[in-house]
Write a structure and sequence with these properties.
By secondary structure, the chain is α/β, with parallel strands linked by helices. It is about 30% helix and about 30% strand. The chain is built from 8 helices and 12 strands. The strands form 3 sheets. It has a 7-stranded mixed sheet with strand order 8-7-6-9-10-12-11, sandwiched between helices. A 3-stranded mixed sheet has the order 3-4-5, covered by helices on one side. It is globular. About 35% of the residues are buried.
């Protein structure tokens, strides 16, 4: 209420951020005295925050298969596919284990001429890769405005033409897809499993991540009720990626 705009809590205390011209040290001293707490202050100099972000955002190389970089990075050689991503507020840069596992598993799937659905597209990275691998058509959805705007920008940056982007939190219509990608989390996957299975074409592939190792048995058991069999399971940093066949 005193004008602080951002907070970061950790084991050692609370960082509170306020514009310098709004900072009232006397007020803070009174507050600290009242609650018997100490505080320290730091003036953060103005800087090029975009440049700072660029410095800290490093490219990701998944084996010799895919390189993921921002447009301010130099092109990366020695990989089959290169994807340009500006992540902004969306999930999916390849840095997280779940995304890199999805990418590795996508290498083992034939996308040429296939119809693909990307559930919870985030930055659009998996949809973009699907098109680059030859998918005939890709439908990508997300329920977040930031993600839709970010994915649209990334789709354009990568010169993709076969991705249909929609803001939605569930699958609609009756269309069947030969490949469905879902890198979200256990709860969302389980809540939508019936729809995911229902939209999977006969002989299709369902690739899931955003799951912890402890989620494995519950997901496999649920998939079994829809006659889906697990054909691959990989682990990385306590996360798993599961591939199911119809």
């Amino acid at each position: 209420e005193a004008g602080f705009e951002g907070f970061e809590e950790n084991d050692r205390g609370l960082k509170a951020f306020i514009r310098e011209k709004k900072y009232d040290k006397k007020f803070l001293q009174e507050l600290a005295f009242k609650y018997q707490i100490g505080f320290a202050e730091e003036v953060i100099p103005e800087q090029n925050w975009n440049s700072s972000w660029e410095t800290n955002f490093q490219p990701v190389v998944v084996d010799d298969f895919v390189a993921i970089r921002a447009d301010f990075h130099e092109p990366i050689k020695g990989v089959e596919q290169e994807i340009i991503i500006t992540p902004k507020m969306s999930f999916g840069t390849g840095h997280h284990a779940t995304t890199s596992m999805m990418i590795r598993q996508m290498r083992n799937i034939r996308f040429a001429g296939k119809s693909v659905f990307d559930f919870g597209t985030g930055t659009g990275i998996l949809a973009i890769l699907a098109e680059k691998l030859g998918a005939q058509e890709v439908t990508a959805i997300d329920n977040d405005d930031w993600s839709i705007a970010n994915a649209a920008e990334n789709i354009e940056k990568n010169d993709c033409r076969k991705i249909r982007l929609e803001k939605n939190d569930h699958l609609t219509g009756t269309e069947k897809y030969e490949i469905i990608l879902a890198n979200i989390n256990r709860n969302v996957i389980m809540e939508n499993f019936s729809a995911l299975s229902g939209h999977l074409a006969p002989g299709g592939i369902l690739l899931l991540s955003g799951l912890l190792i402890t989620d494995r048995e519950a997901i496999i058991q649920l998939a079994g009720t829809f006659r889906l069999k697990v054909s691959a399971s990989v682990e990385q940093n306590n996360w798993i990626c599961l591939r199911f066949n119809h």
